[in-house]
Input
Amino acid sequence: MKFIKIFVSYMIKYLLGFLLIFVTNIVMFYVARSSVESYIIKQVETQIEDGIQTVENTVEKMDLIEQMLYQSNDFTKLVYTGKNFPKKDITLVKNSNDLLKQIGYITNYTPYMFCVFKDNDLFLSNSQCSITFPDYYGSFLSVRFSGEEDMDASGFKDYLFDRKKQGYRFLKADLIKYTYDGKELNLNDAVLYLADGSASYTSEAYVFCFVLSKESLVEEIWSDGQEKDCFLLIRDGISQKELASYGEVPESVMDEAYAAETEKGYHMMECLDNSLGWRITAGISVSYISRQMTAVQRLLMIYLGLGFAAVIVLTLYFSLGRYYSFRKMVSAFPAEEIEPDRKAGFNQYKYVSDYVTRLDDKRQAYRQQLEELKRQNRAIILESIMTRGISSEQERQVFAEYFGQEPEFYCVAMVSILQMQGEIAENAAVDMVNFLSRKKIAVLGNVHSGIADELFLIERFSFQEGNVSDLVPVFEEMAEAVSTQYGCVLHMAISAVGTGIYNISKCYEQAKCIVQAQYMCENETIVQAYDITASSLYENAVTIEFMNRLYTMLISGQYSNAEKELNQIEGRYSRAAYLYEANKEQIFYSIRNVFHTAILHLNVREGEGRLPLYENTLKCHDMTAAFRQSAAWICNYIGQRKKSKNEVLYQNIREYMETHYNDPGMSAYSVSQHVGIAEKYLYQFWKEQTGETFAAWLLRLRIDRAKQYLEQTDYSNEQIALLTGFASPNTFYRNFQKLAGVTPKKYKENRLKNKEE
Output
């Protein structure tokens, strides 16, 4: 047999199956990679948006500086001053300059800020001030704009006012030279912000400028130093001219009309929606994204590698497992069954299918054989139990296993078929079983015994008669039907009703004796029941075990169980009235002696008068009713005595606790020793009587006594703690506040206040 082919086929099937699952890992790989890439791009976008928001906040602060300066009276006077500024008002310029220096610290984002006026030659900055701007410009301040020629002071002012009038807010300067704190500074590629924070028309009379360095703008928007292969371009929204840039901006992007969403090698982002009026274009290079994803891609590749390794391992594991299982199964087949078809080759599924088909063909035969063996075994056990009886607990268990719970009452019927043998006798036996089933006779089991004998174990119920007289007509009808159909003679015998399954052999002997006595009538069908008036199989229900159980129940006050025992006695003797009448006096005094013994044990006064007296006319029902009344009286007496005893015990415990509560060493153990009970029982008893634990009740008692001392005396907390049994004043103070809700001092004050009112 080429088992290697089977193993290879398993390998291929499992490998294909696991590879299909592995495909989902590949999909997850690309989904995860795409998600991480999107996350990186989103982070950069968020970073740019946050940077723009920061710049917007800074510009708002610049507008606030301009507004604050405009609110100054000195500055307002400068705005309205004409061409000829009186030197006596030089303090106005000085005060405005000092104010600008002070409020200029609101933002540390701009290195330099200044203000020029349209109608005069005044000049203010956060460093210096002047009343002759034409002399100041060129010496301490000069600006060169991109694409513009060098300007003098007048041209510079005209340029600023013209651009502001046209709505420009930001201007790019190629170079700004200015003096700050006595130092001459140069700033390349700077941005001038023309503040527009004042709502007054007078804002047209001056221009307030803030200088923004290119580096500070780029660092704010493009923080953490992005790679050089990324770029950032900031253009003015009105002029579309560049304000600032970072990195190598592609020439196509520099085109003012550029509006493409993608640039080769870059992931493009463009921000137009901002209060600055800027058009911001950013390009994140693909190589930068790849570098950021290096660690993630490495983890994802490891994930794919482990997934593929798992595919190989699982394929080998399941293939080998199934292969060896198949080999083990095939090795269990008979040797002559495993020869494959030489022409068709070996097919594992066809082989197993053919073998299972053969097993299925044989299943019905096996099942019938098994059922027949079970029936035979059941019949053998039943016949053995009937003939020998039950004498051990193991035999009881066997009976319960095959026939269910032991019947309370039962009888045995024996049928002897004469003048017929072999298969015809078996058919007649089957017909009899079916007949009894149709008549709803509770047959626990039947057995074919001997050559032509049939035994039936029939259950009897408590609501049926105490004899088998109701079964005789049924068996007579069955005998007539069978004898007519098969032309045979039937001798039938029904035993008396038995109680206790161990009496089953006696019932069998009764039925057997009747059938043997019928042999004299070989040509006549006879149905006969055992005469139960002559001999009965009922055992005497008032046994030693019964009296011991009843006595235990009486002295322990278990009325319901005692009532149940008496009801069972009544049921037994009601079904066998003749047995009760024959042994009435013995039954009565046996039960009465149990009650009398219980009364003596309990030391009940005048207990004898509570028991019934014997009379010859006493019926079974009246007798058990009288004993039930006596049982109720005894159990009630036990309950009352127990209650009285509990009341005495409760009073003893309480009195001891109320007189010794001031003893710090008092405990449940000491109290239990005093009253003579176990400590564990004391806990349980006190909880049942008071609903509180021993410790909780004692603590409440001590706190109640402490309240009395607080109301009636001037004792200190230390004295009261000592008088009420607390180990320390702190313990008293803590427990008092816990139970009373207030401190001892507060409690005493409240009580005194209530008395005064």
About this structure: The chain has 25 helices and 18 strands. The first strand starts at residue 112 and ends at 117. The chain has a mean pLDDT of 82. The radius of gyration is 58 Å.
